[in-house]
Amino acid sequence: MMSSTSVPSHIVFYPMDTISRNTKPDLNSVRRRLELREESLSPFASKSVDSVRAIPEDPASTRTEFQRDRDRVIHTNSFRRLKHKSQVFVAPQGDHFTTRLTHVIEVAQVGRSIARGLNLNEDLVEAIGLGHDLGHTPFGHIGESVLNQMLSGGFHHSRHSVRLVTLLEKDGRGLNLTEHVIDGIRNHSKPEGQFLSRSAVENLSLEAQIVRISDALAYLAHDILDALRSDFIKLEDLPKKAVEALGERHSQRVDTVISNVVESSWDCTGEIDVEGSDGSYEGDSSKPWIRMSPELGKIVTDLRVFMFERFYHPISASVEGRKAAAIVGLLFEHFNRKPELIPAKLRELSGSDERAAADYVCGMTDNYALMMAEQVKPGLSAGVFQGRI
């Protein structure tokens, strides 16, 4: 019997100085190992080795291209500012209300869970998920709606997110992200009402489709939590079918929708054929796509409509919502009239005074926009918090 201090005969010890002299790790082998793991993903998964950047770069030694994109997003100023940008409630001071930053983290979590269940590329999903809302204005969709009305050519946060990662970030160098990630960011938005259909996602990678649906599932779950926490709505106000199908607790709602998407989209794993297909998946009608079951998809769509009617639109029309809209409008007009107040580098990159004003205002956090508005028109932001602390 071996004693606790004895050493098996096959184990050989080398002096530490010998190891340091004669062994030098090949860090590139880390990336190659990660890329090799991707070979075991679904045949429909996106592979980092197939990614393309506008400006070619040498590969990283310890990360795949999609991991590299994720890290570039996280280290941007735009990403850091999300912690002080509204999700729904304007400039929430309560510690537990969702902000734009916690939203994108939750989207990445939901998306990675779905991707893992379907054996798709989690790293790509995470990179798109963390970057999809970089272009949001202060005060969320309230500010976006104002800029869309005032800016020639309109404004949409998904387009501005692409503008940030391709042009404005890094002093005009952009992030040089892969086309896979940029395409996912560009196409994540959804209309009100019905948003689950094959035709709406037919040109997107499965990973981009995951982020698109995860965005809706994540914000429905956490926005319901915020609405309940604030007493804006009561649990009994929610559609009865939604409560019965999704559960009464936040964790139940998240688990139910993730499980349903994975089960309903199982053909994306490549382990079974699409129903009615010969197995080749040739032609649009036979491509697997990310979806929910028809039954739960209808319930979630109806719940989303309910939230727009009973939560999102009323918040926008509230006193604080109207003040937030007035603040964004005031700031846009102010900086459009006085472009010399905008940082020179941003004016140079933007190409016009109007575009520079939109870029500058869009980059503001809720708190900074409130501070700037008080300097331009004192008293405009009074009462914006409505005591929600």
Topology of this structure?
Blueprint: H1 16-22, H2 28-38, H3 65-74, H4 77-81, H5 100-118, H6 122-131, H7 140-150, H8 157-168, H9 179-186, H10 198-201, H11 206-229, H12 240-246, H13 250-264, H14 294-317, H15 319-337, H16 344-350, H17 353-362, H18 366-376
CATH superfamily assignment of the domain at 59-270 and 288-316?
Hypothetical protein af1432
Mean pLDDT: 90
Form type: globular
CATH structural architecture of the domain at 59-270 and 288-316: Orthogonal Bundle
Radius of gyration (CA) equals 24 Å
Decide which structural class fits the backbone: mainly alpha
Written as H for each helix and E for each strand, in order along the chain, the element string is HHHHHHHHHHHHHHHHHH
Low-confidence stretches at least 5 residues in length (pLDDT < 50)?
276-285
Number of DSSP E strands: 0
Q: What share of the residues does DSSP label as strand, in percent?
A: under 5%
Largest sheet: none
CATH top level label of the domain at 59-270 and 288-316: Mainly Alpha
Summed up, the helix count is 18
Instruction: Return the CATH topology of the domain at 59-270 and 288-316.
Output: Hypothetical protein af1432
| Helical content band | 55-70%
